[in-house]
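idk why but the lab printer keeps eating my pages so im just putting this in chat instead. protein + fe (ii) ion:
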Amino acid sequence: MQSDASYTEIQNNFPGLPPFPDDVPTAPLLRLSLKRLLAGDSTECERLFEACVEIGFFYLDLQDSDHGVSLLNDADKLFTVGENLFDLSLEEKKRYDFSTQNSYFGYKGRGAATVDKDGNLDRNEFYNTSKDDIMGVSDPLPAPELLSQSRGQQESFMRGSHGIVSLVLNILNDKLALPENTLSSIHRLQAIGGDQIRFIKAPPQPIDDRRTALGQHTDFGSVTVLFNRLGGLQVLPPGADAEWVYVRPLPGHAIINLGDAMVKFTNGLLRSNIHRVAAPPGIQGDSTRYSLVYFARPEDSVMLRRLDGSDLIPPITQGQVEEEINSKDWIIRRALGRRVDLHKDIDYEKSAGTEQMSRRIMV
Ligand SMILES: O=C(O)CCC(=O)C(=O)O
Ligand SMILES: [Fe+2]
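predcted complex ->
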């Protein structure tokens, strides 16, 4: 993180929450300014590209522009919605688990998916709401009353997050010298796709048994906009000897990362970093961890393969085979492939994404 005086001051901790410890290793992610990116600042755009090639994760300072501040306000409101949502009874929440209908929207209970090849179970619950539903592109899914009441807030958060995603995609489009609007034309707000909000809750874990709450993975789609308050998110930097490091949550910032689709579109030039969620470090481990995510994905029918039209995207090499799969099927396979209630035997590798490419280890 740079300490350039012209960027906003970094506030280290979130009011009302225990502080993130200073003695754990953290990822040195670049910190970019939304204001500068919106203004087309060429140095800032270059830094964004660099972050997307090197690690596929960066902080985005939202405090320095109206768009950013309004997104921060929407995120605050949805943190409260998330808390109330998870306070509903388990019986009520389970009514909105649509996984048996081959849908990844709705509720996932705690321990419903494996986090590793040994079959250990996850330690968080989450609820996904669909962009298409909220934007009126598809029929509304059944939802608890309190979520139905927050449709307006969800729509505002989705529009704000989608705006950030479009900005990131347009900068990458330009840096990759792709024909104009190549990326934005396959991520339209009003088209059918798998974009979603995810509300997440992980309760404090027993002090003598703190483990991974969400298993290591790459995100399935294109661009993720993540709001963290307590630590716990960890990334595995590239290279054979790399070790897991925490991503320190920064007030006023979103954490932006790329997913599998961007790796496939660019034949590995851009990076989708492996990450996981561990118990929050230090005294934060005694608190309940909530987080909020917007996942942007290519429209359902988009084939996940190398894009044509850029000389900067490495060509498909002889012997390299690109899987024929569209965005919808990819997300379903990845999102539901490790659910214990759906599969008798989980084939961990079959539901994998671009993790191997992400490690950047030659085999
Ligand atoms: O809760 C977090 O910080 C990250 C969650 C995450 O990686 C995911 O849901 O894909
Ligand atoms: Fe993720």
